[in-house]
């Protein structure tokens, strides 16, 4: 039997508690033998009545308090306690349980109050674990629900990355088919490899820095096929720890933006992409020239998607994204704490 089965089984939980209560009473009788028969007789009367009151109170909790029938719950609880107290006093007399009032005459009101106090204490002690357990279960259920919500959001964001990448790449391939149709077969093969990586990585929570760098290199190679002679692309990667885990497809949007915004029909175009790594961090820096009279097209997907995924995978100080745009250059720097 697993722990989860025990936690979910009410009969097992309650059975264990009553066994522990009986064991404790037996242990106290052994440790203090003086007056043990009288104490055991008192407990033999008290425990069944307390159990009756406790389970009747649980019924009132489920059917009245948790249904927001507060007045009915209060009246029923008082009735349960008074009825239980009266029953306990009666059974004590039938069992000849001795109960004396220190310094005074023992009256029925005193016995009834004493019995009610014992039953209130037993009910409170039984109810507290009930709500503590419910609070703990609720906490873990909320955590599980939050994790599922995050997983769903990440899946949606990954799907947006795939669509965004495919849209931009098909536009590039269209340009390549006009400028250099003989390079289309090689470009399509590279695109197939990139799509395969995206398909595989979208099913994984983490990839490695090395595989992500290789993916970027292949993407840059595909983009270079369509570039003219006036565009210079420089990609360097210094990765002494390529097996470090990394969230997939986080680096691509910044690299995509370089090729989307840096290419002009005339003049020199430059793109510099640097990927460097330390034992605890990874830095991607991109820099591209901006052609004269460049008018950016608002896509609305790339950077917002990237920021959302960074918040999910590397929240708070674990990531730093800095963007800087001038008239002639655009730089982006992403620092991740791995």
From TrEMBL:
Keywords: Kinase, Membrane, Transferase, Transmembrane, Transmembrane helix. This is Sensor histidine kinase. Pfam families: His_kinase. GO terms for molecular function: kinase activity. It comes from Hymenobacter yonginensis. The chain crosses the membrane at residues 12-31, 43-61, 73-95, 107-132. Residues 153-229 form the Signal transduction histidine kinase internal region domain. The keyword Transmembrane applies.
